[in-house]
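To assess whether the prediction recovers the assembly geometry, we first specified each molecular entity separately, as shown.
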Amino acid sequence: MAFVEIDGLVKRYGSLSIFEGFDLHMENADRLVLIGPSGCGKSTLLRCMMGLEDIAGGTIRLGGDGYIQGAEDGRMTLDKRVQKDVGMVFQHYTLFPHLSVLGNLCLAPVRSRGVKKSEAKDKALGLLERFGLAERANFYPSQLSGGQKQRVAIARALMLDPKLMLFDEVTSALDPELVVEVENTMMELAEGGMPMMIVTHDMHFARSIATKVVFQERGKVIEAAAPDDLFSNPQQERTRDFLRNVLHIAG
Amino acid sequence: MDFDFSFLAEYSGVLWRGLLTTLQFVGIAVVLGLIWGFLLSMGRTSANKGLYWVTTIYVEFFRGTPVLVQLFWIFFCLPLFLGVELSGFTSAVIALSLYSGAITSESFRAALKSIEASQFDACTALGLPQGVQTVFVILPQAVLRAIPNLLSNVVSLFKESALVSAVGMADLMYVGQNIANNVARPIEILTAIALIYFAIGFPLTRAVSLVEGRLLKVVKA
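The predicted structure of the complete assembly is given in tokenized form:
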């Protein structure tokens, strides 16, 4: 049994169909990077896994437990464990602007997990220390750079000890010189053994962090392979076309 | 035409009391209107159809009728239904509170609607229960965003409050009119009244712009 099992996923926005029976499996030790043309459903996939989207069919399982079960009538079943076990970081930070960095980190543990305030604070300060953000603990999001905001968002997700982290284009909104600090933070997490699913347009980063790269197009997995294989020796014509285009654009 | 403002000194005591009356009932109406408006906005954004419609009709009615008519209705008609006399002060407070509640609820509602969908996504991703999400994430941001609008509502209410002179309440406007009639010098006295309203209204409007600039910086992360 794989760590993550997505079987027969169906997702539609009105008459627009994103997935009609999408399958994807991931092992515990994997860092899976999703690449593909925009609009192919990479971000939607992560949002479905987080329970942010109604799915019309299929199941999403984590660690052997079925936690999201799609239904045609829009009444999908969502096991609350999903939010306990999965952490997500978004493109536009989505920090809570009225709370300090510490407030952002401690809100969920204190208010929904019943962690003691002092314990949450200690843990938060530890994480911030580790990310080189300790002196920013009492700053508000508006006082931080984009890179700092995104690293705070990562720390906020880690406060809940997720078993899997989802990264949805987390560097796409950043100025180029700030991308590295966020990518380094993700690399550090990767070295610590955190399973991840990452959507990114940065192919160099994809190659360096992934254990497996999935190329998807029009709601289907076209090719999935180890990064060196997929980037150096893609088997599918469509993968080759895509890589030629993006790598050319990226210079 | 010759102008003589010197006689105003003689009336400064009366004008001062008129101004205090104005500030008093506007102050009460602002506080009551805030509470009432907040409750109304909850109804206006509620999933409960009945609650939604009742509050919507209320708000649209009070936004769509002249304040003067509302004031007259409260002052002349409401006592007939209740069977008790209402003082000018009470009528004014009731009318202005009901009106400002309707206006305030719109400010709150707009602020609630302006919270980005991504904030809700973040709450879901963190597994925040609905109540925690509302109390600790959505409401504080909505209130912060509503503040500039709420302040300009206060300015409007302060100015519109001059209408209560029409039901014989001795506010600043009423006192002014009385003096004007007594001394037959409407130009000087009405100019003075306008300047007094302006002296209070203008700093308030400036405060609104100031607060707006500051808050936007904080709220837009």
